[in-house]
Each structure stands twice: as structure tokens, then as C-alpha cells.
Specification:
alpha+beta, 3-stranded antiparallel β-sheet, globular
């Protein structure tokens, strides 16, 4: 995810009403397939409130969770790929998520305090790898 300066892009008010509000902590599905993501992937909002195109489904958590943990978990293809395989439909250029099918599926996750520890650890490893590159 990245930030685009507002004055460079203009849209009509009616078209902007079709956009989804994307708050910090929300997760969105992006259906472009790649060599790493066979059915598309999730993108977590770690930078702040904004909007995303109506093309992307936005999910807002209903329980307390650690965003750093979920940043890594939702992009772990061995788990999420199987969930997405059962809840996406193929389109010409991207996968479409069938939200009601996706939300019916269960995943096992650690409790909040463990999520915080795992998320912090993975973030530190990520930063260390970045420094060494």
C-alpha cells in the first residue's frame, strides 16, 4: 500500500461515493494473481484511514487482534491459499472474493497476547532482513 497525493487525482463526487472507507487495521482483498499468490492476496492497512476502490472488499475486525501478526498471517499462502481457493471465482484478469463463502471458514489463531509476541518477532526479523539487503 502507498500514498498518492490528492491534488494529482480528481474524480467526480458520484464516483467517489462508490469507494470503500479503509481504516487503519482494516484488511482488503486484492484479487490479482501472481507467482506467490495463486488466488489473490489480502492487504492490511497499517498506515492510516483512507479509501479504496469498490473493486476491493474491505474487512473490519470485530474482535481485538494484533495488526502486525495478521499482516504476516493473511499473506501466508499455505493457509490462506486453501481458504481463497474455496471462496474465490475466476474472472478475466483477477479473482473475485465471495465474501459470504470466505467468512464461513474457520482458521486457528493464537490469543491476543501471543499474536502480539509473534507479530513483533516477525516484524523484527523482517526489519533485520531489510537492513541486510
Amino acid at each position: 500500500m502507498y500514498f498518492k497525493e490528492a491534488d494529482r487525482f480528481k474524480s467526480s463526487l458520484e464516483y467517489m461515493k462508490t469507494y470503500n472507507v479503509f481504516r487503519k487495521g482494516d484488511i482488503s482483498f486484492e484479487g490479482n494473481k501472481s507467482k506467490n499468490y495463486a488466488y489473490g492476496r489480502f492487504v492490511e492497512n497499517t498506515i492510516g484511514d483512507g479509501i479504496v476502490s469498490h473493486v476491493f472488499d474491505v474487512f473490519r475486525p470485530i474482535v481485538k487482534y494484533d495488526l502486525m501478526y495478521w499482516k504476516y498471517f493473511i499473506n501466508y499462502e499455505p493457509v490462506m491459499g486453501r481458504k481463497l481457493m474455496r471462496s474465490t471465482t475466476k474472472a478475466t484478469m483477477m479473482s473475485n472474493l465471495v465474501a459470504k463463502d470466505f467468512l464461513k471458514q474457520d482458521v486457528l489463531v493464537p490469543n491476543y497476547s501471543e499474536q502480539k509476541e509473534i507479530g513483533s518477532y516477525l516484524s523484527k526479523v523482517d526489519n533485520l532482513l531489510t537492513l541486510h539487503q
